[in-house]
Amino acid sequence: MTRAAVLPALGTPLRVQDIEIPDPGPGRVRVRLAAAGVCHSDLSLSNGTLRQPVPAVLGHEGSGTVTAVGDGVTGVAPGDAVVLNWAPSCGRCHYCGLGEPWLCAKAGDAAALPYATLTADGSALYPGLGTAAFAEETVVPAHAVLPLPDGVPLTDGALLGCAVLTGYGAVHHSAQVRPGESVAVFGIGGVGLAVLQAARLAGAGTIVAVDVSPGKEELARAAGATEFVLTGDGTGTGDPAKRIRALTGGHGADAAIECVGRADTIRAAWSATRRGGRTTVVGIGGKDQQVTFSALELFYFGRTLSGCVYGNSDPARDLPVLAEHIRAGRLDPSALVTERIGLDGIPAAFDAMLAGRGGRALVVF
Predict the structure, then answer these.
(1) How far apart are CA 193 and CA 208, in angstroms?
(2) Is the pLDDT of residue 355 over 90?
(3) How is residue 99 annotated by DSSP?
(4) Three-class SS string for 278-300?
(5) By C-alpha distance, which of 53, 65, 63, 66 is closest to 128?
(6) Whole-angstrom distance, CA of residue 227 vs CA of residue 221
(7) Pick from 291, 319, 340, 44: nearest CA to 166
(8) Which burial class, exposed, middle or buried, applies to 39 when counting CB atoms under 10 A from its CB (0-12, 13-18, 19+)?
(9) 3-state secondary structure string, 189-200?
(10) Mean per-residue pLDDT of the chain
(11) What DSSP string runs through 287-353?
(12) Whole-angstrom Cα distance, residue 186 to residue 50?
């Protein structure tokens, strides 16, 4: 028996309940969680923006220690520290064959299969994004765990599983920021803070953080922002695109990275990008969030607009790189965390995300 934050139905509050997790079968691994980040994607799963069978145990940004392995598992053993991989690639589909494992057609298969049961009535539970990290323990496919590199604290390892990997990849793989370029980052939550750190690591010159909350300025500057633009409710600094153009010689940012997933912020990020620049959308929006562009501006500005899934990253390749930056002090996952909570604090963390408060909340077991 283990404790978990259970989503009984879409749009309902999470409830901490006892669940039963089976011993790992062939090709599966049981992990005792050390920490789990509360990501906006979990909120999107809970309200139906992203598809998720219910009842479910959410949580996908996690780290922990292997306690048992099933038959045929050779990559990890009991006692190993690991990072959960919520989008494990199959290595066989069309996209994996193209060298794009972040688009793997099979990555979400585990989320559609029950993995545990409620202790109270034996009803089946589904794992959020295949990982179910909002629990003291979980069972996942063996290819959904990655060894935690040496020198990275176990609790920090949770953030490598989503926020840090996504933020680093958005800058280095998708936007491909070069030294001296200007970068605008829209939305300074956990991922936005990771993007700022990655932009600084890439050697960007002017780094503009954009958010609706004045309380984010100190966090943003500590993460690498050289400028902060307040926007949103009429008390800020007006049109963020105009401000960003003013801060970048009148041209606009070489790269703008949107971490919110709203039509207005995507549009603002696009408008803040210089002619010929790159706009990267990391935030996950709903189907109702429609973004409009005119045919003339698409031609005239010559900008590139691209989506970015999991930072366009290959975790097996990128985790060792991130670990080296962490060991050298160039990246600091713990700086993304503004609150450490227990399982019962997750609903309040969801409310804080909706209100635009803080960075990453981290569940520590």
Answers:
(1) 12
(2) no
(3) T
(4) EEEECCCCCCCCCCCCCHHHHHH
(5) 53
(6) 7
(7) 319
(8) buried
(9) CHHHHHHHHHHH
(10) 94
(11) TT------HHHHHHH--EEEE-SGGG--HHHHHHHHHHHHHTTS--GGGGEEEEE-GGGHHHHHHHH
(12) 21
* Residue corresponding to tokens 């966090």: 219
Contact 145, 88 (CB under 8 A): no
**Rounded distance between C-alpha atoms, residue 110 and residue 88, angstroms:** 10
Structural tokens at position 46 = 């809970």
Q: How far apart are CA 225 and CA 204, in angstroms?
A: 10
- Give pLDDT tens digits for 203-246: 999 999 999 999 999 999 999 999 999 987 545 556 899 999 99
Tokens 């696009």, located at residue: 270
The tokens for 19 are: 């669940």
> Predicted confidence band at 356 (pLDDT cuts at 50, 70, 90)?
confident
Q: How far apart are CA 16 and CA 347, in angstroms?
A: 10
Measured CA to CA, the distance from residue 51 to residue 70 in angstroms comes to 29
Query: 272-288, pLDDT tens digit by residue?
Result: 999 999 999 999 988 88
